[in-house]
Amino acid sequence: MIRIEHLEKRYSPPGGDSPIVLGFDSLTIAPSQQVAVAGPSGSGKTTLLSMIGGFVEPSSGGVTWNGLPWPGKPGALSARARARRVGFVFQELNLLPSLSLFENLEAAGRFLGLPEADPVIRRALERVGLAKRLRHKPDQLSRGERQRAAVARAALYPHELILADEPTASLDRTNADLVMDFLIGMALDNGSALLVATHDPLVMETLPCRFDLPARRIAVGSARRKGTLPGP
């Protein structure tokens, strides 16, 4: 079980404007639970996922996994240890331009220490409709194909938690449904919790739970905004 309490991230905007705080309260994610993190651009979806995954350090508050503090400071866990526990589909897809699609996923498999990555990679690419593109380099792929490749990369290891940041943003409806079916099936197969940051109403309807974020960032000293997600 993953729980966040009184989690905040403070920013100092350029130009001397007042500091901004993004505040999130009372979110509990049970094992295997599937949650849509909803809200418009700027509401803090990416920030929340990054803090839960341990990629960004909160300004205050904390995250616990099974009652134990999750070491949220970047570097507190080795990159490999974090990558084995958390699968993250970033908006910035982080594919290496000099490598083919297959080689990108192969490098990720080696980093995770997978002994037999080849069949896992081929199955993952086939399930997202990229079986015929595995020898193409990222610049030979469309944005949507690169997005699907990033989703496939997250399937290489049975993570405890899968975080997907706008995974359908660059996709048509057919491929968006394909990616969501893949993410949900992967989470069910591995017993993983799944959090999907999205503003796509169809994705929100697909997932059984929803966590809504406020529409605006708030200046320090303003009333705190809270979001709650009922337990499963």
The topology string of helices and strands comes to EEEEHEEHEHHHEHEHEE
The third-level CATH topology is: Rossmann fold
Assembly of the depicted chains: single chain
Task: Calculate the terminal CA-CA distance, rounded to whole Å.
Answer: 11 Å
What is the topological layout?
Layout: E1 2-11, E2 20-24, E3 27-29, E4 34-38, H1 45-52, E5 60-65, E6 68-69, H2 79-85, E7 86-89, H3 101-112, H4 117-127, H5 143-153, E8 161-165, H6 173-190, E9 193-198, H7 201-206, E10 209-212, E11 218-219
Parallel strand pairs: 4-9, 4-10, 7-8, 8-9
Antiparallel strand pairs: 1-2, 1-3, 1-5, 2-11, 5-6
Protein model, in words:
This protein is an alpha/beta fold. It has a single domain (2-95, 145-151, 158-219), classed as Rossmann fold (3-Layer(aba) Sandwich), CATH 3.40.50.300. 31% of the residues lie in helices and 22% in strands. The chain is built from seven helices and eleven strands. Strands 1, 2, 3, 5, 6 and 11 form a six-stranded antiparallel sheet that branches. Strands 7-8-9-4-10 form a five-stranded parallel sheet, with helices on both faces. α3 (101-112) packs across α4 (117-127) and α4 crosses α5. It is globular and about 50 Å long. The protein starts with a strand and ends in a 13-residue tail after the last strand.
